[in-house]
């Protein structure tokens, strides 16, 4: 791989160098969005948390996202009276060596004044981080790659997801860190999945996480199963699960992590996205981007998003590569799709060939090539209330 | 020529459509000619053999639910005649559990 990354103070390397403009309550969202719009720069991204009540998960997520290797500097937008601990977040960013400025709307003098102040801050930070950028070679072994599926249908489990599984096998073999998820979409797969665990402790953690997911979703009244899944030919949660699980490939699962946990070693991880404790704040992830944001908070440089029905989303901070499982969908939505995995059904390619194509695209995107969603300005972001307990002992691999 | 349906695992009792299979088409399923009585879309499932209510539906070599009504070979298998053994699914028409 012939690519140059951005070296960060913690040793990680970014594949993008973006300014994150972060609103810390919905009341500051408008000002933050206008600042990003006025910047008119694909490297200025909007992130944020809408709630006024403090939440440990949201703070942990925003801390992780603000020092993501793709982020070079941060502007925080606070209304002033919200519960979010802006001092904690700003100090965390500053400790990482990144430029950070906080604009408090109530202190700035209102909407227009805050917009002007924040726009000036974005310009200063962008100049600083571009001037101070340290470019270094980046290899597959430097990358964290996540995979998510959305808008799944009867083709997802046959083409797009197993092709990503082949790509994951190659990436892990090359020393990359790979993360797969949605324990709610692994209900029914806990047996075979736990047999792939690297240790008995990780196997136990996997089984427990799926049992938790089933309990949680049962309390919500639905599985992770949308109407479009049914229209696309999927008939049950476990059918969707079996198709989703093959995204993980065949490598050993060396650890189980939770949102905003950083994998300590290269290899394959399961991300447990279902909250701990009694169901409290609603559905674990209200839409696909909530999962993508959690992947990114774990350090994902790139997300491989497989879709059958045809999702069009991208993400703030890290590029999304869309792998289209359904040949009819690809024909309709090719402007949004990066990889045509549905061609396997038409006899125009094998799983291995599409898997290789996905790895080649990961390398190209890491080297700076834009994904379809990046080129069209997709920078979706969503973060909601959740509650997690810290990882249990034995969930992570031990450094040997 | 693209096959109309594929068998994902030898233990499966359903086939997956690689394209929309039209009513009146004749498909060869395990050597038998079967006339399709209802069009079935890409990605959906056909019964590989006659299935009875209560039978496990096997796909990828694994159970994906149970039949709630009978289906003949070549018949559409979906939420009208099968259901999850784990947790209810929802559609746009229903608020919980039932299609």
Plain-language structure description:
The complex is a heterodimer of chains A (400) and B (99). With 400 residues, chain A is an alpha/beta fold. Chain A has 14 helices and 14 strands. In chain A, the strands form three sheets. Chain A has a seven-stranded parallel β-sheet, with helices on both faces. In chain A, helix 2 packs across helix 11. Chain B has one domain: Archaeosine Trna-guanine Transglycosylase, Chain: A, domain 4 (Roll), CATH 2.30.130. Chain B has no helices and nine strands. In chain B, the strands form three sheets. Chain B has a four-stranded antiparallel β-sheet, with no helix packed on it. Chain B has a three-stranded antiparallel β-sheet with strand order 6-7-9, with no helix packed on it. In chain B, strands 3-4 form a two-stranded antiparallel sheet. In chain B, a hairpin with a 2-residue loop joins strand 6 and strand 7. The C terminus of chain B is likely disordered.
Per-chain topology:
The complex is a heterodimer of chains A (400) and B (99).
Chain A: E1 3-7, E2 13-14, E3 18-23, H1 29-39, E4 44-48, H2 56-66, E5 71-78, H3 86-95, E6 100-104, H4 105-108, H5 111-131, E7 135-138, E8 144-149, H6 160-173, E9 177-181, H7 190-195, H8 200-220, H9 227-231, H10 237-245, E10 253-257, E11 267-271, H11 288-297, E12 302-307, E13 320-324, H12 327-333, E14 339-340, H13 351-366, H14 372-375
Parallel strand pairs in A: 3-4, 3-5, 5-6, 8-9, 8-12, 9-11, 10-11, 12-13, 13-14
Antiparallel strand pairs in A: 1-2, 1-7
Helix pairs in contact in A: 1-5, 2-11, 6-13
Chain B: E1 5-6, E2 14-17, E3 26-29, E4 32-35, E5 45-47, E6 56-59, E7 62-67, E8 76-77, E9 82-83
């Amino acid at each position: 791989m012939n690519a140059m990354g951005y070296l960060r103070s913690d040793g990680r390397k970014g594949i993008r160098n973006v300014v994150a403009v972060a609103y810390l309550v919905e009341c500051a969202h408008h000002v933050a969005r206008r600042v990003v719009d006025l910047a008119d720069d694909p490297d200025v991204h909007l992130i944020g948390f809408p709630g006024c009540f403090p939440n440990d998960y949201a703070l942990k997520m925003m801390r992780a996202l603000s020092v993501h290797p793709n982020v070079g500097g941060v502007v925080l937008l606070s209304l002033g009276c919200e519960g979010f601990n802006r001092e904690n977040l700003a100090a965390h960013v500053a400790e990482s060596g990144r430029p950070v400025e906080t604009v408090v709307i109530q202190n700035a003098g209102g909407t227009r004044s805050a917009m002007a102040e924040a726009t000036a801050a974005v310009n200063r930070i962008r100049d600083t981080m571009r001037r101070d950028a340290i470019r270094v070679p980046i290899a597959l072994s430097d990358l964290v790659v996540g995979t998510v599926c959305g808008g799944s249908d009867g083709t997802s489990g046959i083409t797009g997801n197993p092709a990503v599984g082949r790509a994951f096998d190659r990436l892990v073999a090359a020393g990359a860190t790979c993360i797969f998820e949605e324990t709610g979409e692994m209900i029914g797969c806990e047996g075979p999945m736990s047999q792939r665990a690297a240790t008995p402790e990780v196997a136990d953690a996997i089984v427990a996480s799926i049992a938790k997911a089933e309990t949680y979703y049962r309390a919500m009244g639905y599985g992770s199963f949308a109407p479009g899944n049914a229209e696309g030919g999927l008939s049950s949660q476990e059918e969707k699960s079996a198709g989703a699980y093959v995204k993980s490939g065949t490598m050993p699962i060396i650890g189980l992590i939770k949102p905003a946990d950083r994998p300590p070693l290269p290899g394959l991880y399961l991300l447990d996205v279902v909250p701990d404790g009694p169901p409290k704040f609603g559905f674990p992830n209200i839409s696909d981007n909530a999962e993508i944001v959690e992947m990114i908070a774990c350090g994902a440089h790139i997300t491989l998003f497989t879709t059958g029905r045809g999702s069009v989303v991208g993400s703030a901070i890290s590029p999304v590569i869309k792998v289209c499982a359904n040949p009819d969908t690809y024909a309709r939505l090719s402007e949004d799709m990066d990889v045509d995995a549905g061609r396997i059904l038409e006899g125009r390619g094998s799983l291995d060939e599409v898997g290789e194509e996905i790895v080649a695209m990961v390398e190209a995107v890491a080297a700076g090539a834009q994904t379809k969603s990046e080129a069209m300005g997709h920078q979706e972001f969503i973060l909601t209330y959740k509650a997690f307990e810290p990882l249990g002992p034995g969930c992570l691999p031990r450094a040997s | 020529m693209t096959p109309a349906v594929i068998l994902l695992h030898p233990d499966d009792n359903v086939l997956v459509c690689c394209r929309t299979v039209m009513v009146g088409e004749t498909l060869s399923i395990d050597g038998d000619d079967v006339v399709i009585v209802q069009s079935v879309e890409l990605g959906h499932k056909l019964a590989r053999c006659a299935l009875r209510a209560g039978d496990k539906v096997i796909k990828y070599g694994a159970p994906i639910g149970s039949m709630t009504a009978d289906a003949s070979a070549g018949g559409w298998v979906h939420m009208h005649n099968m259901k999850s053994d784990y947790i209810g699914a929802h559609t746009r028409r229903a608020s919980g559990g039932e299609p």
